[in-house]
From TrEMBL:
This is histidine kinase. PANTHER family: PEROXIDE STRESS-ACTIVATED HISTIDINE KINASE MAK3, SENSOR HISTIDINE KINASE. It catalyses: ATP + protein L-histidine = ADP + protein N-phospho-L-histidine. The keyword Kinase applies. It comes from Roseimicrobium gellanilyticum. Its EC number is 2.7.13.3.
Length: 733
């Protein structure tokens, strides 16, 4: 026997004794390294410690082989040997695993290793209480609530009537059997019957558990050897129960979950091993055991094996709250994870896009409703024609504007039929032009309603051509502008009337000089006519007289023309008529107006100087209105110089081309402008006793209507200058 132990220890001890430097840890097993669960706890402990400890460690394993040998009498050879081994070199740490090893170390440490610190590992709390005051000892182990070990069963299978307990016949096994019998009978005897199988061999136990009555379970406890004395290394006992039982198998330790036990609140042996390694590291670093707390962990949170739950038809919903289920079979999700993810991704993308499209459609509908509302409130009718469809869609307002029926389909031709015959071709060509250039159109046209009334409509739109230009999408907005047109026309009419009145008034003021302008040629005509009659009264006029006669007649004709011109100009200015734009020679117009006012100007002693640039292009203007403006400026200039001494009354008329414009300046040496020059252009602003104060405001309106400008400036020396600019006519000279 001793030989066997020695053989087991020898290689380890040799290496320990020969090595220098590493720390020595004696692991004292209760049952041997191959017995579960202590063997597994030792293995985890050793791995953790070797990995994390800063110094190298030599582990020395010794075993009591308690699973096989009862009684302290068998300890002697082991004691002798350990004594011999550690005579010179004490271990740096002694770690008894499980309560038998703890008891062994407690009994013999004073002789074996009196100065080595001791870590009691994996011994149940109540089994180590008696060592609590030892300053060289610290303990890490479980704190087992015995009742809970069986309570696990009722938590998931409350109807359980029979519990078959598989526990071995070793001293430690018997100890626990006694404790459990006492506790469980007290707690659960009214719910179930406990059947203790301590006295059965493994074979007998197999046969017992293979034919259990309904509502039975198997509870596997400590199984190191069976009643026949056969050692049960590792999990032989548990595995056998799992294989044979026709009922669920429960056990105590978390390290056994996954080997066929159902689960429950389990002894946290993995945690004990891991935390124990941490404490061992501190002890090896020289931390005194008395300064380290004792740690005893209660049973862990409930944890179950999914495969066993399934096997025994136990629903996960029946598990206690906070349960964890392990060993789930990979489901469809795990097996086809990537394809599933791609599928889900595609679906999600598609769904997202559909959602976006729906949202966009909703938004578009809302926007369309908003637009229609805004358009309605602005009296605007919206319409559109889709490509390839000869049907127009539009708002109710659009139908009203075009005098279309309230409902029913409307074609483009239906709409064109409503357009005034004179404007049809204009509308068509505007749309065709926009279609060709892929752009917008904008025009005002008339619409004839079914009752014959004519409305003016302003239509703006955008044409988009698809593929073969036959497919046109047209969107448009139309607005009834009849009232605005009417108002504009009326305003134009008023302005024309006013302009006419102004001209009449001006000509009235010029009537004296105009009479003079007529009297002059009439007087010349009269005197020439009298002289001619006198010559013709002679029977035989002399040839020279005949020559004079011809000149007289020529004078009569020329003066008659002159008088006729004056009358024609007056009639032109007095006329009320349509505005007609035509290219006008600016210089000729100036000459004509000066001609008209000549007598008046001469009478007032006003001299007119012309400073006319060469090659001034014509301007597009209405002759009457153009002359009216010049007439107004010239008469105003003359009026402004009334108070000037004779000889200081001169008007300078200047023309020049300024870029694309022709500019005409009327400069005087008069009173000049007091205050803001712009104030002169306000209607009814006058400083004259009989003035109306309308001349300049009307002149500005006329020039502006021609696209030009009229403004006044002060001269540096004296007087004022009035400036007109009008667009030069291109290509006409
Ligand atoms: P009216 O000649 O009937 O007064 P206008 O509108 O033609 O009306 O002129 C408005 C006023 O502008 C004139 O009364 C005058 O005070 C001022 N004004 C016009 N032309 C000149 C000028 N060349 N120099 C100084 N003041 C002028």
């Amino acid at each position: 026997m001793v030989r066997r132990v020695l053989l087991f220890l020898l290689p380890l001890l040799t290496s320990v004794l020969m090595a220098e430097g590493p720390q020595h840890v004696l692991i004292m097993h209760s049952f041997g390294r191959d017995y579960s669960p202590n063997g597994e706890v030792a293995s985890i402990f050793r791995t953790e410690l070797a990995r994390d400890n800063p110094n190298a460690i030599e582990f020395v394993d010794a075993s009591l082989e308690m699973a096989r040998f009862d009684g302290e009498e068998n300890e002697k050879p082991l004691l002798d040997f350990l004594r011999a081994v550690f005579e010179e070199q004490m271990p740096d740490l002694v770690v008894p695993i499980g309560s038998p090893a703890v008891m062994f170390c407690r009994r013999h440490r004073s002789t074996l290793f009196p100065h080595s610190p001791m870590l009691l590992l994996d011994a149940e709390k109540r089994r180590v209480e008696m060592m609590k005051d030892d300053p060289d000892v610290v303990s890490v182990g479980p704190d087992v609530n015995i009742n809970y070990l069986a309570g696990n069963i009722f938590e998931v299978l409350p109807k359980t009537r029979h519990i078959y307990v598989a526990q071995d016949a070793s001293p430690i096994g018997r100890f626990w059997t006694t404790v459990m019998k006492r506790e469980w009978d007290a707690a659960y005897s009214n719910r179930a019957t406990f059947h203790w199988m301590n006295d059965q061999s493994l074979k007998q136990m197999r046969s017992t558990v293979s034919a259990l009555p309904p509502d039975s379970v198997v509870l596997v406890g400590m199984m190191m050897r069976d009643a026949a004395g056969v050692p049960l290394v590792e999990e032989t006992g548990l595995d056998a129960m799992h294989e044979s039982a026709n009922a669920p198998v429960f056990s105590f330790n978390d390290l056994q979950l996954g080997r066929g036990t159902l689960g429950g609140r389990l002894v946290p042996q993995k945690r004990v091993a891991v935390e124990g390694a941490k404490v061992a590291m501190k002890l090896l670093a020289g931390v005194p055991p008395s300064s380290l707390p004792w740690q005893h962990f209660p049973l862990g949170a409930p944890v179950y094996d999914a495969r066993e739950l399934k096997r025994w038809g136990i629903s996960e919903s029946a598990l206690p709250a906070g349960s964890t289920v392990l060993f789930r079979k990979p489901g469809l999700w795990e097996t086809h994870r990537s394809s599933f993810l791609i599928f889900v991704g595609v679906i999600a993308l598609q769904t997202g896009m559909i959602a976006m499209l729906l949202a966009a459609r909703k938004r578009a509908r809302e926007m369309h409703a908003d637009f229609t509302l805004a358009a309605d409130s602005g009296n605007i009718g919206l319409w559109s024609r889709k490509p390839g469809v000869d049907e127009l869609e539009g708002s109710a307002k659009w139908r009203t504007i075009f005098g279309l029926p309230d409902s029913g389909s409307v074609t483009f031709e239906d709409v064109l039929a409503r357009v005034h015959p004179e404007d049809k071709s204009m509308l068509r060509s505007a749309i065709e032009l926009a279609a060709r250039d892929g752009g917008a159109f904008s025009l005002e046209h008339r619409v004839v309603h079914p009752d014959g009334s004519v409305r003016w409509v302003s239509s703006h739109g955008h044409v988009h051509a698809f593929g073969d230009r036959q497919k046109l999408e047209i969107r448009g907005a139309s607005r009834d502008v009849t009232e605005r047109r009417r108002a504009t026309q009326e305003a134009e009419q008023r302005r024309e009337e006013l302009a006419h009145l102004s001209r009449v008034a001006t000509l009235g003021a010029l009537s004296g000089s105009l009479a003079h302008e007529l009297n002059q040629p009439l007087g010349i005509i009269l005197s020439n006519a009298q002289a001619a009659r006198h010559v013709l009264a002679c029977d035989q006029p002399e040839p020279e007289e005949m020559c004079e006669l011809r000149e007289m007649i020529a004078d009569i004709i020329s003066e008659d023309r002159r008088a006729g011109d004056v009358i024609a100009r007056m009639r032109t200015l007095l006329r009320r008529g349509e505005v007609s734009l035509q290219p006008l020679d600016v210089h000729q117009q100036l000459q004509e107006v000066v001609q008209l006012t000549r007598s008046d100007l001469i009478g007032r002693g006003v001299k007119v100087d012309f400073q006319l640039a060469e090659d001034v292009p014509p301007v597009m203007s209405d002759r009457v209105q153009f002359q009216q403006v010049l007439l107004n400026l010239i008469t105003n200039a003359a009026d402004a110089m009334v108070a000037n001494p004779p000889g200081e009354r001169s008007i300078t008329l200047t023309t020049c081309q300024d870029g694309d414009e022709v500019r005409i300046d009327v400069k005087d040496a008069g009173t000049g402008i007091e205050g803001e020059p712009e104030s002169l252009f306000k209607a009814f602003h006058t400083t004259k006793e009989h003035g109306m104060g309308l001349g300049l405001s009307i002149s500005r309106a006329l020039v502006t209507a021609h696209g030009g400008r009229l403004w006044a400036t002060r001269n540096h020396d004296r007087g004022a200058t009035f400036h007109i600019t009008l667009a030069a006519t291109k290509g006409v000279t």
